[in-house]
Amino acid sequence: MSGAGNRPLPRASAKAGIKRTGVARPSPAGLVWKRTAGGGWTTRSLTRCRADVVAGAAALALLAGLTGCAPGERRGAALEPLAVADVPTAEAVYGELIDALIPGMSQEKLEERQAPQQLFELICLRAARPGCERARAALCRAIVAHLAPSTPQPARVWMIRKLESIGRDECVAALAGLLSDENEEVRESARRALQHNPAPAAGSTLREALARAATPEWRVALINALAARRDRAAVGLLGRLSQDADADVARAAVAALGEIGGEEARRLLHTLAVSGPAPLREPAAAGLLALLDAGSAAARAEQAADLYWKLFESDLPAALRAAALRGHAAAAGESAVPRLTDVIRHPHETLLHALAIRCLQDLPGRAATQALVKLLDEVAAGQQCQILLALAARGEASARAAVLARLEAGENEVRLAALQALRQLGEASDVERLVTLAGSTTGPQREAARGVLARLRGPEADERLVAALRTGPAAARAESIRALAVRRFRSALPQIAERVQDESPAVRLAVLEALRELGSEADIAAAARLLGDEDAAVREAAIDTVVALTVSLGEQSARVARIESLAGSVPSPLGRASVVRAVGRLGGPAALEFVRSATRSMDAEVRDAAVRALCDWPDLAALEEVLAYARTQENETYRVLALRGIVRLAALPSERTPAETLALLDQAMSCATRAEDRRLVLAALGRVPDEAAVACAEGLLEDVELRGEALAAALSSIRSLAALERESATRTLRRLQDRLIDEQERDKLAEAARFLESLEGRLTAWQFAGPYQQEGKPGVELFDVAFDPEQQDSAAAWGTLLPDNPERPWVFDLSKATALKGDHRCAYFRTAVWSGRPQPARLELGSDDGLKVWLNGRLVHANNVQRVHKTGEDRVNLELEQGWNVILLKVTQVDGGWGFSVSLRAGEDVPPPGLRYAPRPPEEAGEQPADQSTNSIGPTGGTIPAAAPSSSNLRTAWRPRGP
Amino acid sequence: MPGKTPFSGARITRRDLLRAALAAAVAPRFVPARALGLSGTTAAGERITLGLIGAGNMGSVHLDWFLAHKQVQVVAICDVDRTKRDAAREKVEKHYADESGEGSFKGCRTYNEFEELLARPDIDAVVIAVPDHWHAIMACAACRAGKDVYCEKPLSLTVREARQMVQAARRYGTVFQTGSQQRSDPSFRRACELVRNGRIGRLRRVLVNIGEPSQEKYLPSEPLREGLDWERWLGPAPWQPYSAERCSGSYTGGWRLIRDYSGGMTTDWGAHHFDIGQWGMGTDGTGPVEIRPPRPPGYLPRDPDEQTGLTFVYASGVTMSRNTSVNGVLFEGSEGKVEVNRGHFKATPEEIAHEPIGPNELHLYESPGHQEDWLRCIRTRQRPICDVEIGASSAIVCHLGNIACWLNRPIRWDPLREEIVGDEAASRWLDRPRRAPWRIEA
Question: How many Å lie between the alpha carbon of B423 and the closest alpha carbon of chain A?
Answer without folding.
Answer: 6
